[in-house]
Predict the structure.
Amino acid sequence: EDIAEAHSRGLHNKTKELVLEYYNKIKDDPDKRAVAEACGLLLKGFKALKGKRIVVTTHAYFLQMPPEVLTGYTVIIDEDILQLQIFNKIYKISEQCLEELGKKKVPIYSDIALEILKAETGEYKRITQNPYVPPLTEEQLSELECAGGYNINDLCLAGAFVKNPDRESGEMVIQYFCPQEMSRMKYIVLSATLNENIYKSYFRGRMEVYFYPEKKAAYKGRLIQYTYHSLGRRDLSDKKQVFCFVKNLLEPEKPEIITFKEGRSIQGVSEMNTKNLHFGNAIGVNSLEGRSIGIVGTPFKAEEAYKLIACYLGADVNRKEDKRPRPRRVTYKKCSFLLTTYQEPLLREIQMYALESEMEQCVGRARILRKECTVYVCSAFPCEQAEIHMEDYLKGMEGKKSAECD
């Protein structure tokens, strides 16, 4: 938690200090010998890899590895690193904090702060990155009264930003996207949800991208989907009876449902979510393997998550037509369907790419590629290989306000 909190504030070089502090506490505890050994490897850093023939690590740690270490290996990246890691690097900082930073005359950082402050509210803008600026120390950050809880250090890495009132506090904040540099070398990325156009747009001018489409294997199990209702967060809040519908589909099995994190607080849903999985945390989990499950909802993100990335990639996201998404007929992966989305093509594709990735990850938890079970999906976004049902499956269930079935 301490390391995650430090990273969220842009203190990326604090990890070793925190690990050393913990290591010194436990190194003499015989019950924590394995943990101490793991800490010891972390403290050695990349030196610990010397002579290792195979190295397995996370996306986040991999992105910190220097090219001199990586070039000694064939690099195989499992799962979509662009969608699951790089596109999540969106941070925020208050307008008040930027104003203070501008007055302090901190080299480079104050210039960036003043440039951002000139922008109009709600206007998405690209910004020139300064990747070689040294991060502010903890002591320098402590001198800024507003620094607590905000990420100032990564401002120099920002590629696009927008200024808007915070949805919860109402405070004026700036959200910004930090594109991640990857060393120029060969990478092999394996994933069923890669988007060729987005990959080529992101790495254009830095690396060539080649795609080798996989041969789709037919599911051994079944994927049955109901698409009549949108079931984004707002729509789902008025149609909680959908959980009762899915529960009835899953009986007599003990129902297990994946939905929004906040959706688990709906009466009757927590009992159908024993693994605590939700949109955003289901990747790679095997606890539902071979189980028939339900997936409820269309996992739309806040619009900043789409527009900041699209803006960085060169799309005009400030047009009046795209101030808010609205229902449109779209075509994606040879499917035509209605969805609340945008008019700008690249912005819309980024949203479709994110939806597809999240939905397919959740479907994959049951491992229906090799298991004879059934996944029931209630969402307007069509999944690949699904048996689609387009009728109003909630007709006659109006008025129910919970997942409890009569």
